Fold:
Amino acid sequence: MMEYSKEQIMNEIQKAGFAAVDLQLYLDTHPTDKKALAQFNQYANQLKMLKETYSKMYGPIEQLAPTEKYPYAWILPPWPWMKISMIEEEEE
Amino acid sequence: MWTYEKRLEYPIKIKKSNPEMAKYIITQYGGPDGELGASLRYLTQRYSMPTPQAQGILNDIGTEELAHLEMVATMVHQLMKGASVEEIKKAGAGGYFADHDHAVFYIDASGNPWSANYIQAKGDPIADLTEDMAAEQKARATYENLIKLADDPDVIDPLRFLREREVVHFQRFGEALEIVQQNLTNKKYY
Amino acid sequence: MYNYLDPQSQFVPTTIPIPQYKYTPYATSYILFQPNTEKMYPLEEGFDKGTIFPELYIPYSPQMNKGRN
Structure:
């Protein structure tokens, strides 16, 4: 995988995650659609891989996934609702 | 059960504060057609819903609505952040500031608190799914109103996303209604 | 079929027509349709538009409700 910035990987996670959500809802009412299921799995696998990459580099993204970062990095900003200033990744 | 993923469903990066816009957008947080009502309505209707497809869709759309609730709160938070008390007063949000400072609270655009009166779980699957379709249309219409009120592209972009999700949810609920009705007509009875 | 004279029979709302629906901005009628999973937006576009299925994407334009107020 080429060198992605933190923001780029997060963007890829949001895109793959969104495709998975949209297809997942579709499968709820179309459980026998084989093509949709294959497409869902493609994005779900991509999402899994992206989350693993992101969390290894930048800290946990899933509440219950194992994490090796110490001290416990789950609690560290930025939290998703925070306004990121242009200069540093800290809320003003 | 729910776990949390530390990200937004769709990116929100609002650079310019705007307490007036926050005052309008908050209606999709605690208002009659907002995301709190949507998530609580669907998640509580699922217990009495027949057929796996309908149970699945209520469970999963209810869950996605929590992610939308978070997005709306994020927009309000970012629009209020950095605004001076003068700017907040000028925007007509002084009353909100008095009660909540920079907190995000469950009210509509006029300051009315969220109410369980906004939702229903009738236990009748036809009634419940029909209400859900209506709810999605009302939410879609509200997002269109908010888009009309906004002029900042950083604000319009996530509103556009949320609006389109309502259209998709409407489609899914309609399919669930159709499936439930087919199942009821196919039921054997003597 | 429900027969109120027969306590064994079960109410089924067979008189409610199955909805044929599609979202339209003017929502006066509903048309049933199925997304075609062969046709999906390129992921980037679908992400920006809020759905992977092109048929479900209804672009918003201020003209939508023109003349209705």
